[in-house]
Protein 1
Amino acid sequence: MDVQSMKFLAAGMAHLGLAVTAVMVGLIWTTLIKTVGRNPACKESVELFGWVGFATTEAIGLYSLVVALITLFS
Amino acid sequence: MANALDQFRIEPIVPIHVGNLDLSFTNSSLYMVAAVVISTVFLTAAMRRRTLIPGRFQSVAELFYEFVAATLRNNASEEAWRYFPLIFTVFMFVLCGNLLGLTPYGFTYTSHIIVTGGLALFIILFVTVVGFMKHGLGYFHALLPTSVPGPAGIIMVPVELFSYFARAFSLSVRLTANMISGHIMLHVVTGFVVALGVWGGWVPFLGAAAIITLEVLIACLQAYIFTILSCVYLESALHLH
């Protein structure tokens, strides 16, 4: 197998971690909706945590995307 | 496929070579100058007529100020207030960088790891210097909280040291990866618009419109995350846990 095919394979494998990230981002929103559902008055206090949590979780998923891009284009 | 990464290429506009160093004025530098000019002109023009009860334009500038000020106040103590100009500058620089990349033919300088890495490394080094200035050599207590028993402490110190510097890495890669992935996705989808022509091109066009909306949200959110994490790191240096 030549280097280019291995690069494509490696990039594909690096992406598998994003599945867990997607599930966990959904989990953040689920928890947020449940929390606001139980106690609608606390919407302002938990909304911030929802956005910050979403951004940091997505960032960790994007680290694996960076690895995939590095293997593809170097 | 290599086409999608062409948008991140740095092209020198005014080549300046000093000996072996390449100090050219590039398109990245141009957009950084544009970000500085835009934020400075916007804020000074809005505060030109300073009234106690703000008019519409002044309210917008006060919105930016109050947003960052509230972030710093909520996440850091009173003595961190003297570092507000740094936090505000970081916020405006990252925000303008992210948003300028979404303009037509725009270049996102925050999508380069060297820019965000430099910014994040500066923040971590700054926080370290602040910690040493305030606590002297006692700043090493940040690595080992006093309530930890002996053997666990020996394992904890290298782990804590590593995680201390990994913060710079995560801070920079978070911003860069978000910008790179958003722009590549946008490039690919808008490529479909051209490829499908007049009759089918409206389908990916709607997708591109949705993605740009998401990208504006991500641009503002990532600038806010960078700022809030800088405030948290500053606070953790000033008040050791």
Protein 2
Amino acid sequence: MESLLNSLSATIIAGLVLTVILVFVIHAIAA
Amino acid sequence: MELVSYDWWTQFFRWLHVISGIMWIGHLWYFNFTQTPTMPKIPAELRPAIVRYILPEALFWFRWGAMATLITGLILAWLNGYLVNALKLGIGDHNGKFTAIGFGMWIGAIMWFNVWFLIWPNQKKVMGVVPASPEEVNAARRTAGLTSRVNTMLSVPLLYAMVFAAHFY
């Protein structure tokens, strides 16, 4: 986790991955 | 026609919320995209200029931007009538707007907590506002830096949830 956060680009990619997961979670809850 | 209507206040707090949010996340991204990666490249004798002059000012607008964003966001959700629906993530409501804005609110609240209870107390040690040993300063710098990176990571889905909630539904 720390090595991921030490890299800015890895941090942004993790944020994008979380966003994609969030889209599916929102659709699942709202359905 | 009412001079100051409900709609007027909603728009006013939405505007304040967006402005405060830019003040907050703008500084967060300044720290992570500009200041932190550049610090190792700055000659040692020049670094105090950043730590003593730029950093305290940036942290002032950063943490109060976070506070203003949280407060205006809660007021806005209350004025919109969906504060409770959003806080329970729209579960049972079958309304994607409540779910999306709710996730945005919870992510934002976690980030606000990180600013005020992890980043700021540790940065005070780094800046020498609070007395600390060199070991404590190093530990504080690491904790503040990692928490700042966590918030940068969370800002990506946060902004998606906020804008998605406002424009998709």
